[in-house]
Amino acid sequence: MTAGNVFFALCSIAALVGAMCTVLAKNPIRGAMGLLLTIVGIAGLFLKLNAQFLAAIQLIVYAGAVVVLFVFVIMLLGPDAGHAKETREPTGKLARALSGGLMAIISIVTLFLVLRSAEKPERFGHVSAQHGSVEAVGTQLFTKAVVPFELATALLIVAVVGAIAVARSRHQVRKEKQSPSPTRRFFHGPLHPRDAGRPLTGEEL
Amino acid sequence: MNILGNVVEHYVLLSAVLFTIGAIGFLVRRNVLTQLMCIELMLNAVNLTLVAFNRRHIGDMNGQVFSFFVIAVAAAEAAVGLAIVLSFYRLKQTVFSDEADQLRH
Question: In percent, how much of chain A has pLDDT > 70?
């Protein structure tokens, strides 16, 4: 048992426990914390795979932005959001259980078939320190993958604008309240110079 | 020499298990927030596979660049998805996907 083996075992256990926590948690906040654990575990596995740049990106983008966004939204919706309303019978319980079980069976059978036909595993070879560094990934990103990179920037801009447009509250657009009196309605808006300086009297209202 | 964590099969196995957990959670749970988190789980599992296979191709960074784009798309997806959840909560006062039946009848 070397340190690398222990590191791999710890990270994979963290990822699995976090995933189970995400799926099983009744409280969405606990689910978000489970997702955080999974993400940190996978970042550790990236480090083990000599992908230092991606490990940092994973921690910054997922743990720093996505999980925080989830927590913000859960807090914004309030504590009642996670509780089922009793007004309606939960529909499709059987369908959901069936689809989940089917997914599990398909995965287990596929896994079994793959494992049975597996060849002898081949160990990873030695890598240079350049593998997975910022220079190596950045060079690839700005030479061969420059078009998808620019498209990704456009995608992010569109996503930000779309998210603001979808989440914006409709109540902020306040309608001009209509005055009940026809006279007041007639004089609503900029006054005619003729009427300037002559306030409406009681009879006219 | 222990091979635990030194062959690509271990990573692919772990990622398959993570993906399955995410897929089952997406199908079984009714809370939209949990379902979105399960989508993130599945994307993370795919990322792990891409980086694990990239480890065997020394001097080639295509897998990691792919993984980078997956992370970018996942961030955009989370932002838009959570905005839709907020809008849905404003409309129906709930976060359960069963209640999203405006197009049903």
Answer: 76
CB contact under 8 A, B64 and A137: yes
CB-based contact A53:A134 (threshold 8 Å): yes
- CB pair distance less than 8 Å for B8 and A121: yes
Global pTM? 0.83
| 8 Å CB contact between A30 and A21 | yes
Average confidence (pLDDT) over A166-170: 80
Task: Count how many pairs of residues, chain A against chain B, have C-beta atoms within 8 Å.
Answer: 241
Sort residue A189 into left (φ over 0), alpha (ψ -120 to 50) or beta. Answer: left
Q: What is the DSSP letter of B94?
A: -
A140: closest chain B residue by CA? B61
Are the beta carbons of B25 and A31 closer than 8 angstroms? no
Min CA distance, A81 vs chain B (Å)? 6
Continuous segment of H or E residues that includes residue A37: helix A28-48
B77, B83, B85, B86 alpha-carbon torsion, rounded to 10°: 160
